[in-house]
Specification:
2 helices; single chain; Glucose Permease (Domain IIA); 145 residues; 7% helix; PTS glucose transporter subunit IIA; PTS_EIIA_1_perm; Dup_hybrid_motif; 8-stranded antiparallel beta sheet; kinase activity; transferase; 3-stranded antiparallel beta sheet
Length: 145
């Protein structure tokens, strides 16, 4: 099953993420994107299974059981949810392309935080499709194995 980008921007390999939790793949493999848009979309059809109170991270269980972590920014938990407007809640069913969040990335940058968005497969191996260059939400970034 293909997993699509959650945001438009510049895709980059996880090796280049400044947080070792992601660059060392402690939670799983995936991709990172430097966002050029404030809207975050569902990468798959599935269900919202986790949403941090601070709105900086959420979990999606795909229809085939794959679990994906979407983490917005690095250390943005410290912003206590201020730059995030959630459009879904735990238990909601989502389709690929559904709007999940709107994010005030300029506020995150102004506050001194990294805006990189990570999409991680936490319970599956992946095959990368695209982890560098410009990407849109219409392009798959990896395939679940």
């Amino acid at each position: 099953m293909n997993v699509y980008s959650v945001v438009q921007g510049l895709a980059k390999n996880l090796d280049n993420v400044s947080d070792p939790v992601f660059s060392k793949r402690m939670l799983g493999d995936g991709v990172a994107v430097e966002p050029s848009n404030s809207r975050i979309f569902s990468p798959v059809d599935g269900k919202i299974i986790m949403f941090f109170e601070t709105k900086h991270a959420l979990g999606i269980r795909a229809e085939d059981g794959a679990e994906l972590l979407l983490h917005i920014g690095i250390d943005t938990v410290e912003l206590n949810g201020k730059p995030f407007k959630e459009r879904v809640k735990i238990g909601d069913s989502v389709s690929r392309g559904d709007l999940l969040l709107e994010v005030d990335f300029p506020m995150i940058k102004k506050s001194g935080y990294d805006t990189t968005v990570m999409l991680i497969a936490t319970n599956r191996k992946i095959q990368l499709i695209k982890d560098t260059g410009q990407i849109s939400i219409y392009e798959p970034v990896f395939r679940l194995l």
